[in-house]
Structure formats: C-alpha cells, structure tokens
Amino acid sequence: MKLVRFGAPDREKPGMLDAQGRIRDLSKVIPDIAGDELSPKGLAKLRKVNVDKLPLVRGTPRIGPCVGKVGNSPRLVLLAILRAEAGRRHRHRHAARRWRRL
C-alpha cells in the first residue's frame, strides 16, 4: 500500500498507487492523509480498500507533501530553544560586564 497526496498546493487530495503505479483517488474514503488516518486503526481501514475499484486520476497531477495538517509545532519548539540559548548568552555577556566594573 503506497499512499500519496496529489493536486494543487493546500488543496491536495489523498490517493493510493495501484499495482501499475497509477494514482487512484481516495477522497471518497478518507478526507486526507493525516491524523486519525495514520493511526493503526485508520491504516487497517485503508488496507481493506480495493484499490482497483477506486477512481483513476487522469493526467499527471502534482505530487504534494506526504502528510497533511502537520502544523507548526516542530517550528515552535525550535524557536523556543533558539530564544532560550540567545537569552543565556545575553545574560552571561551582561554579567561579565558587571564584574569588570567592580
């Protein structure tokens, strides 16, 4: 089972590759490849789908990001770490200046 997301940016649809490597439309089965669909229960549901009965996607659509609705949490964690480091460096620099004045 190979899952893909295809279509215009920010409007990708879920899809599955068939045995010939063609994209089949999964949008009638699941809303997107994200969250609950990636849980063990959701993946078990997808394994039961008959790929050959899904509609074939015509043309050569753009292949999108592999998972949708990721959010900003990794970015926010990184920013928090960088801010904490910058604050530590700032405090140490000012502490060194105070000691030099004494």
Précis, in short:
The protein is α+β, with helices and mostly antiparallel strands and 102 residues long. It has helices at residues 40-47, 73-101; strands at residues 3-6, 13-17, 23-25.
What report would you give on this structure?
The protein has 102 residues and is of the alpha+beta class. The chain has 2 domains: 1-70; 71-102. It has 2 helices and 3 strands. It has helices spanning 40-47, 73-101; strands at residues 3-6, 13-17, 23-25. A 3-stranded antiparallel beta sheet has the order 1-2-3, with no helix packed on it. Strand 2 (13-17) and strand 3 form a beta hairpin. The protein starts with a strand and ends with a helix. The mean pLDDT is 80.
